[in-house]
Amino acid sequence: MSQQVIGFHYTLKDKEGNLIDTSVESSPLLYLEGSGQIIPGLEKEITPLNVGDKKDIEVKAADAYGEVIEDLRITVQKSQFPADKDLQIGDQFQVNEEENAPIFTVIEIEGENIHIDGNHPMAGHDLFFEVEVTEKRAATPEEVSHGHAHGEGGHQH
Ligand code: ZN
User: Fold this and answer.
1) pLDDT tens string 1-30
2) CB 5 within 8 A of CB 139
3) What is the pLDDT of residues 82-137, one digit of tens each?
4) Dihedral, CA atoms, 9, 120, 154, 44, nearest 10 degrees?
5) DSSP string covering 106-135, please?
6) Measuring CA to CA, how many Å separate 76 from each of 95, 108, 110, 133, 134?
7) How many A from CA of 157 to the centre of ligand 1?
8) Cα(89)–Cα(109) distance, rounded to whole angstroms?
9) pTM for the whole structure
């Protein structure tokens, strides 16, 4: 069978039931099957569903944004930053120019010690999705060659 493009609405909550994100106020999200556009734990559950199906899906951290990597929580010295930099908790920066270099967030400032964390903000979190499938269709040859879904909610060129 050819690859499919699947559209769905989602509401994402954390373990405590707090709303993290939802597509309901905007367009459904579109993905090309097997292209890694959405987290693997979610794709595995959505792909077999039919249009109109709703499902509650729990995705463990390991199948979402990964477990927290302690080695990415490090302490650096304030002197390693530009002297005119007014560091604030929540500031984000890349340590080098590589495209996939982790983005670090300043999590604590203790005098000269700056604690930074390069984990994804959602790392270590189990995610709770409510999804509703809105669309399923065969991918176009163009989508297959680009490796992503096109159209509203998908990749816009
Ligand atoms: Zn494209």
Assistant:
1) 589 999 999 999 999 999 999 999 999 999
2) yes
3) 888 889 999 998 877 777 778 899 999 999 999 999 998 889 999 999 999 999 99
4) -60
5) EEEEETTEEEEE-S-TTTT--EEEEEEEEE
6) 12, 11, 11, 46, 47
7) 6
8) 7
9) 0.75
For the record, the structure tokens of 80 come out as 């390693």
Q: What's the CA-to-centroid distance between 145 and ligand 1, angstroms?
A: 8
State in Å: Cα 29 to ligand 1 middle.
15
| Gap between the Cα atoms of 31 and 23, Å rounded | 14
Structural tokens at position 48: 């077999």
- The alpha carbon of 143 and the centre of ligand 1 are apart by a number of angstroms equal to 6
> 113-117 and 103-110 as β-strands: parallel, antiparallel, unpaired?
antiparallel
**What confidence score (pLDDT) does residue 1 get?**
59
What is the token pair recorded at 87? 């560091």
Token duo for residue 86? 């007014």
